[in-house]
Amino acid sequence: MFSLFQKIPTISTQELAEKLPDNIELIDVRTPQEYRSGHIAKAKNVPLNKIGGYTAKADQVYVICQSGMRSKQAAKVLSKKGYNVVNVRGGMNLWTGKTVGGK
C-alpha cells in the first residue's frame, strides 16, 4: 500500500563516497548556479523544479542537494514514479570529497 509518509532510505555522504566507483545514478537537485559552484563529478544536475519530468536510467537513484531537504522532496517525487531512491543526508554541506565546478 502506498503511504504518504513513505520512508525514503538515506545514506551518509561517506557511504555515498564509497558507492561512487560503482556505476550509480546521482542527481543533484540544486539550482544550476549552486551546481556550477561545485558538485560531485558524477552528479547530473536536475533542479528540483524539473524533477517531475526526469527519467532515470537506473532503478536505483541517489539524490543530493545542499542540506538534504530538497533532495528529500525530489526523492518522494521519484519514488512515486516507481524508482528506488536514496537520499544523501546532509547533502553537499557534509560532502568532504572532491568537487568540480562548471557544467
TrEMBL record:
InterPro entries: GlpE_sulfurtransferase, Rhodanese-like_dom, Rhodanese-like_dom_sf. Residues 20-100 form the Rhodanese domain. It comes from Enterococcus italicus (strain DSM 15952 / CCUG 50447 / LMG 22039 / TP 1.5). Gene3D superfamilies: Rhodanese-like domain. This is Rhodanese-like protein. It comes from the Bacteria. CDD domains: RHOD. Pfam families: Rhodanese.
